[in-house]
Each structure stands twice: as C-alpha cells, then as structure tokens.
Amino acid sequence: MAISTYTLVAIIGCALVTFIPRVLPFLFIKKLRLPDIFMCYLSYVPLCILTALFAQSLLTEHENAFPTINALPFLAAIPTILTAILTKNLLWVVVIGIISMAALRFFF
User: Which of 102, 38, 40, 33 minimizes the C-alpha distance to 73?
Assistant: First the structure.
C-alpha cells in the first residue's frame, strides 16, 4: 500500500496541530511556581470535564424539547456512583461501570 506525499503531510500536520497545544503550555509552565489559588482552581478541571462527559452520556437532546434520560447508561451509573462513594477507588469505579454496562447490554 503506497501513501501519497499529500496524505503523509496531512497526517504529520494533524499530529502537530494536536500535539503543540497540549505540550507547549506544560513547557512554559514547567519552571514557574503558580499561586496556590490557581493550582486549587486547576485541580477542579478534570472533575468538571468528566462530569460534563458523564452528563452528556446520560442525556439525549431533542430539538425543541427537553433532554431525555438514556435508560441503560442511567442504570449502569447507579452501581458505579455507589462504588465511587463507598470505595473512592478509581479502578473499582471503572471496573464496576464497565461490568454494569456490559451486563445491561447483554440482558437488554
């Protein structure tokens, strides 16, 4: 299988466009000491992103109507959230979430 020069340049360009915005900020901030309040603020960013992704998977939006709840992800979220509250262990949360969703898809 031959690859054209255009395709190779497009792949390398896409890789650079994806890589540079993710790496450059770390290179600039690596030597700086950021204020504690800023570090506290940044500590909530992953939680906010995961919450947004979680809520998006639970809801289906409809044009000119309220969002509805997806039944299977909602049912799988219940034991997953309980596991998160009880264990506070990310590995167990992920394992229980995967098992819950797999079991629900298998049976329904």
Answer: 102
